[in-house]
Amino acid sequence: DKENFRFYVKVRTALNIEGRTIHDELRTVFGDEAPSYRTVARWAQWFREGREEIEDEERSGRSVTESTLENIEEIRSIVSDHSHVTIAELQEHTDLSYGTVHRILSDHLELRKITARYIPKQLKDYQRSERLRICKENLSRFAEGR
Predict the structure, then answer these.
(1) Between these two residues, 78 and 67, which has the higher pLDDT value?
(2) Which InterPro entries does UniProt cross-reference here (predicted)?
(3) How far, in Å, CA of 66 to CA of 72, rounded?
């Protein structure tokens, strides 16, 4: 959780520990889950300059909370019925931003667009074997000249 990392950076910075050392400690404990050195150094600098809060500051723009279960299900339903639908059409139908629609499609529904149609990012085993069977059948037809 970001705030836990930031709290650790805040405490270690108050003890005059350098950003590189703080980052190394976090990497030792959390591995790839630890924030980057650049992030740790930036937060350490802000805390040295007097920042007290560990929470994010308010930012302008649309909130990521548009990726609600209701919106995810609505987009899933539309894509299931019309796999050739575009993001612009989904935007128009749902009144969500382009970024939100794209995030729901790629991150939540794990879909990607191929030849103007949304398909699962990962094939199931039976889908993979069926595609392999069809490809082999097409190859043999090609070899036979049919």
Answers:
(1) 78
(2) Transposase-MT_Hybrid
(3) 9
